[in-house]
Task: structure prediction
Amino acid sequence: MSHELDFVDELRRRFPARSPVHTGIGDDGAVISGHESEQTVVVTDMMLDGVHFDLSQTTAELAGRKAIAVNLSDLAAMGCRPTAAFISVAVPGLAASRSLLSSVYDGIERLAEEYQFTVAGGDTNAWDGPFAINVCMTGVPMGSRAILRSGAQAGDLLAVTGPLGGSLGSGRHLTFEPQLKTARQLIEHVSIHAMMDISDGLAIDLHRMMDASGTGALIDSNLIPIHQDVPGTLSAAEQRHAALTDGEDFELLIAVSADQLAKLSQARVCELTEIGVVTQECGCRISVDGATQPMVPGGWQHS
Amino acid sequence: MSHELDFVDELRRRFPARSPVHTGIGDDGAVISGHESEQTVVVTDMMLDGVHFDLSQTTAELAGRKAIAVNLSDLAAMGCRPTAAFISVAVPGLAASRSLLSSVYDGIERLAEEYQFTVAGGDTNAWDGPFAINVCMTGVPMGSRAILRSGAQAGDLLAVTGPLGGSLGSGRHLTFEPQLKTARQLIEHVSIHAMMDISDGLAIDLHRMMDASGTGALIDSNLIPIHQDVPGTLSAAEQRHAALTDGEDFELLIAVSADQLAKLSQARVCELTEIGVVTQECGCRISVDGATQPMVPGGWQHS
Result:
């Protein structure tokens, strides 16, 4: 929503993390530490009819699938595998609610089978409003601990796990595969400094990672991988702009040392596309056709 | 909602608990086991404008308070103290949303201070629908493990932590104190076989505990404590009926051995009201003016 970044900052100031919470508001998920070596990670996302999907255009099964998949993407971004899902739904009226719910849960069940988590609780309500679904998921680190977005270091390389742009227009936002497998491969092979998923578009999400890390970034616009869902009828500049700003890509953005990225490249375990570097100087910049300029949430300032 | 019990049963069959989930759908919360001795409990409740509160009659602060308090009540029912809350909201439009949200979070903050948990994450969205809020909370057992509703044993006594009825009519459902302190006192002094909170009315919730435990119950209607919020203008029978069926009491229902209840009574740590016994024979019965009859979700069959 409008001003969401400001609002999240306000909430973070208002609700500092108390033990046993290790990392609270502001990352893809929260980290709760139990025993010293054991972390539980919690993520949550609410999806609303007319905002995140449109039930007049989309099946309820895909709506249920998306509600889970965006949370799985958050867990992947934290370097975690899922353990349990808690699903609250508000369904309009009573007449068609049972078949609607049944379809929503069909979409959920497929991902529960594929990624082996338990639907362990929830809340079901009827009301006069549109369909709404909230999913809260728990997970545990695939490696020794959760990976935060705040660990990027000056000199790190920035990379993404796949091409960006065109997700909403193509409907890919309903069917994307959360990057759990890639996250596992990365964690098994290299040490990652920072990771997050690209949900609001690289131009916004890169700022979030750099702000959290106290660093800046310099991106080369020519290196940004453009998804085939971005219409080929657009100009080259428009395509890069779409890749930066469309959002709902649910690929991972990673900050990793050059050594580790080279190691990964040699091992050929997964495809990463290098897009830029982390800088000591704060702020995000982008080079477009040889000229470097500030990167803004809308991409870059067109001259 | 209508048929919610059936629907919960269907979900429970569809989504059996997978490791590390120990107890899934069907209790006040789910139990996730990490290390063998360490359990995390997760509860969730969604609250909707026009269903669980009415923002044309109630402050947003009380709506936020209730959304947290019902989850704290679920944690108390599991014998757990809260650790973290995850809050998703859908707010109508954009114009008044910031002040609405600020008031909602005022109500949340008071309980976070009082019960010392962290607001550790969430999701904020604007839409064309009414105000909706989902809270998911994590907690840890106050004793050695979470207390389920499935542990009642034939011969146990049934008791409640306070008077019932009149909660919705009086507005108490917005201001009630979750029974965390009482739960702690109980756990410190005695061994409890089963516990749950009374949210849909004793007549419904007692069935849930007995079904989960594979037992039955015989309740004495004269023993049911009637809240002063139940109008005194009602007949004695109507008052008992209100206490059984009004719901949203958020007192705790407890199954405990007679020995343990006597020990508690001697220690005078908290007030419990004995209302009946757990029976080997399944089904819930109630004695009304000397005659025993089946207890139904609506209370009892009036002749």
Notes: The longest helix of chain B spans residues 97-115. Residues 221 and 288 of chain B are 6 Å apart (CA to CA). The mean pLDDT of chain B is 93. Chain B touches chain A through 67 residues (CB under 8 Å).
